[in-house]
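[step 3/7] fold_predict: job queued, chain A
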Amino acid sequence: MVEIVPSILSADFAHLADEIARVERGGARILHLDVMDGHFVPNLTIGPPVVQSVRNITRLQLDVHLMIEHPDRYAAAFVRAGANSVSVHYEACRHLDATLGMIRNEGALAGIVLNPATPVAVLEDVLEVADYVLLMSVNPGFGGQKLIPYVLEKVRKLDRLRREKKLALPIEIDGGVHLDNLGDVVRAGCDWIVTGSAIFHSSDPEATVREMRERAAQAIAVKV
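[step 4/7] structure written:
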């Protein structure tokens, strides 16, 4: 089943509880939280206290994306704050296997993230130690960007690779996904669709999540 994963990066933080409640009513089951440090990416966002506050107001799965340097130093704090899944960038991890293992030992799913220009081939020998893979379809740091088209071919390559290895790990995509390109993204092989602006900047986030879920289901039917 394809999951529509709202990213709170584009939400109104002055009314965050209400924003989350809207997407939950729309059928979202996973919430995406972007953590940026101003070093690995040119932006600053949230830390463990915000994750804990979100944990206190929702039962949704919290998917925390660490766009930070030295993620091994901080990942455990986010799990303890309430994250159900934590993804770290291949480009930021010196000891990726150990970092993924630490996240798992803390009790969360461990994901690997690739920037747009990083080839899927680097994952061939480590897919078995990941719970999911997130492919960035924009250059990380800011919301509201356009999807980079060649990333969909990366999705197809990763989909073929996981099938060859008989792995069930979900493929997640983040950046520039909206109603008009959602079908292409789903048919390429994505399972978790992160989208922020398309939902939270719409006139009715609840209805938008519901419509995206319906379109994703239709795209799966066409793919089959």
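[step 5/7] annotate
The first helix runs from residue 16 to 25.
The radius of gyration is 16 Å.
exit 0
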